[in-house]
Write a structure and sequence with these properties.
The relative contact order is 0.11. The chain starts with a helix and ends with a strand. By secondary structure, it is mainly alpha-helical. It contains 34 helices and six strands. α4 packs parallel to α7 and α26 packs across α29.
Length: 683
């Protein structure tokens, strides 16, 4: 009985301590989450770490939940009558405006995903309800002058920050983005008035003729433009200028031939490295627009509000310490000063990030503050050097043969399959990332530039973006023999060429030839990346049955490799496939129920192996580049936007590069206003 009494007393003591410290732990945790979000949120646009993504997701969700719970906790606390408890309670309810400040979030993250922007109305309702709750909590405590005056300034800062976040979410919602980018309606020349003048002139017995002078168009001759290296300042300036126009791609707005001409004139004279750098900066700015407060704080009002919140918070801090000077301190006063210090440090850090940004440089570049703009530029060069990538610069890899050899049914995988988690397990276990090589970037740039050089009319720009291997096979002279492999559905083409690329790779010994090794490396990298998109990002490809086809192919491959007593390695497995006699099309033998393409790919590989190694790998790599470009131009813009917060996708970079070089369906205005003249001749 004594033991039970002691346990009860001990539990009661722990409960009393927790009741006393609960609100303190909550507000300190809320502050810690804000610090983590400010300094970590921006990293995800250039990092593909799943761990970082999970931590940010948890912090993003917990930050709001803890702050709202803490406000609710304060609202349920009874006001003590007199003494130290009453004084401590008054200081604790003074934390309510700090919680509003935390609910306002940090400049580096307002939305974890682009879907969060569409919930801005819910955040507006939350703003109104939480502000009302915070005011109620504070007023219920009957505050004295020592907390009332500082609280007024903190409430102003908190409400302003919370409203700023809600406004940023609204600005980044797709409907609002689209409406902000829609150009002024253009009725065109007054056709009715012109035709009336023409009719009156004819009725008056005068000889009238309408002469049409089309708008002059200045084309870009690709062959006449030599590549040159431009200063980093030019790269930044060009990126900021192009961003204003090409951000319309993300909301499905059209571009004109003037946009194409201006972009081509710049990109065709740049080196591949600097062309990609412009695109990286543009995509970084788009990430800021969609996921941070950039659209709000980089305006005149935004900068004014930022200065106001800093001054207001500083004033509240000074008032609080002056009014409490000479009074006995305590843990709650120390925590309050820690909250003030955290708020001021976060505010100053945010202002520093705001100043050292492309947005601020763009605002100052066209002004008279040249010395300040040069200072910002020097800071940008130091903190964001040209050599540092603005995205992850990585591409995911997935390999079918490797997956089929390693994926074995176990108790764990069976349980995961029942729970619907097998796909996540496979992604974690069998998908890896590699850096996008400079050679691959240069190859894509050169291939697209060569296409731009061969274009003779505006319709050709659209046609080239619809090629997914046909153009490469025709140029190399192998369309008759291999054209069947690119005329099937796109997901089938990816699987055919992916397996064939692996079969050719394991049949070759290119280790002695450095150039050939580079071709093989590029081909395999793109091949594995395209399979990753097919399996893990099917929404980024054209509609099809890619996952069904992949599953059937894997099932056939596993059954085929299981014939061996011991599990073969990848080279042995490839040799086993190539040894199969595939004279007759597999579909003719086994029907069309199974969508497996394993031995169709074997037929393709055998045709490729008839070519000389150099010709074979030059052909394979350009076919893969063309498939990559096709996938990029046919992916919906909202899916491109969605991947910006996951480190970015190579597919998105290629999409932007194609558009800058004039290719794609976005260019819908191919001519300007015709200049019609009414020529009147007297009889």
């Amino acid at each position: 009985m004594e033991g039970n009494g002691m346990n009860t007393h001990s539990m009661g003591g722990l409960l009393a301590v927790w009741n006393e410290w609960e609100i303190r732990v909550l507000v300190l945790t809320s502050l810690a989450l804000q610090v983590f979000l400010l300094f970590s949120a921006g990293i995800r646009k250039r990092n593909v770490s799943a761990l970082l993504g999970v931590l940010l997701w948890l912090a993003y969700l917990l930050a709001d939940s803890i702050a709202i719970y803490a406000l609710g906790y304060l609202s349920q606390t009874h006001v003590p009558k007199g003494g130290i408890s009453n004084r401590n309670h008054r200081i604790q309810v003074f934390w309510a405006p700090f919680l509003l400040l935390h609910l306002g979030g940090q400049d580096t993250i307002t939305a974890f995903s682009i879907e969060d922007n569409e919930l801005w109305k819910r955040h507006l309702l939350s703003l109104l309800s939480q502000v009302a709750l915070a005011v109620y909590v504070f007023s219920k405590s009957r505050p004295g002058a020592d907390t009332l005056y500082p609280a007024v300034f903190m409430f102003l800062s908190g409400i302003l920050k919370y409203g700023e976040r809600t406004w940023a979410l609204k600005c980044a919602s797709m409907d609002n983005l689209r409406s902000s980018m829609v150009t002024t309606p253009d009725p065109g020349p007054n056709y009715a008035k012109f035709m009336e003048e023409y009719r009156f002139t004819r009725e008056a017995g005068l000889q009238a003729e309408i002469v049409i002078e089309p708008e002059r168009r200045t084309g870009v001759t690709t062959a006449a433009i030599a590549e040159e290296t431009v200063p980093y300042t030019t790269v930044i300036t060009e990126a900021l200028c192009f961003f204003v126009t090409f951000k319309r791609l993300f909301v499905n707005l059209i571009l004109s031939f003037q946009d194409r001409t201006g972009s081509q004139a710049t990109f065709l004279r740049l080196t591949p490295e600097q062309a990609y750098k412009i695109i990286e900066i543009e995509l970084s700015l788009m990430y800021d627009t969609l996921h941070s407060k950039a659209a709000v704080i980089h305006t005149c009002y935004g900068r004014l509000f930022r200065c106001f919140t800093l001054v207001s918070t500083t004033t509240a801090c000074v008032l609080f310490n002056v009014l409490h000077k000479g009074r006995p301190g305590g843990i709650d006063v120390a925590i309050t000063n820690l909250l003030f210090g955290g708020a001021l440090c976060l505010e100053l850090s945010a202002i520093g990030m705001m100043l050292v940004s492309y947005w601020t440089y763009a605002a100052l570049e066209g002004s008279i503050c040249h010395s300040l703009s040069h200072l910002i530029l020097r800071c940008l060069k130091y903190f964001r050097p040209e050599s540092r990538a603005r995205w992850s610069n990585s591409m995911a890899q997935h390999n079918l043969i490797s997956f089929c050899l390693q994926d074995r049914p176990t108790l764990v995988t069976k349980i995961l399959k029942l729970l619907g988690l097998k796909g996540h397990w496979d992604s974690w276990l069998y998908i890896w990332h590699i850096d996008v090589s400079a050679e691959l970037k240069t190859l894509v740039f050169r291939e697209l530039k060569d296409k731009a050089a061969s274009i003779v009319d505006t319709e050709s720009y659209r046609k080239f973006s619809n090629h997914r291997g046909q153009w490469a096979l025709q140029c190399k002279g192998y369309y008759k023999e291999l054209g069947w492999s690119v005329e099937v559905e796109f997901d089938e083409s990816i699987l055919l060429w992916h397996i064939a690329t692996d079969l050719c790779r394991y049949s070759d010994d290119s280790s002695d030839d450095a150039k050939l090794s580079e071709y093989v490396s590029i081909s395999r990298a793109v091949s594995n990346y395209m399979l990753f998109l097919l399996v893990a990002r099917p929404f980024m490809l054209t509609a099809g049955i890619g996952q069904i086809r992949f599953g059937d192919t894997c099932a056939e491959a596993k059954n085929f490799f299981a014939r061996e007593m011991t599990r073969p390695d990848e080279r042995s497995a490839a040799m086993m496939v190539l040894e199969v006699n595939a004279e007759i099309a597999p579909r003719d033998v086994k029907g069309d129920r199974s969508k497996s393409v394993l031995f169709d790919a074997c037929r393709l590989a055998k045709s490729l192996l008839e070519l000389q190694p150099g010709k074979r790998w030059r052909l394979i790599r350009v076919v893969w580049v063309e498939m990559l470009c096709y996938a990029a131009s046919n992916c919906r813009s909202n899916f491109h936007a969605k991947q910006l917060s996951n480190g970015g996708e190579l597919l998105t970079v290629v999409w932007f590069l194609m558009t800058h070089l004039g290719m794609g369906e976005q260019y819908r205005i191919e001519s300007g206003h015709a200049r019609a003249k009414l020529i009147v001749e007297k009889n």
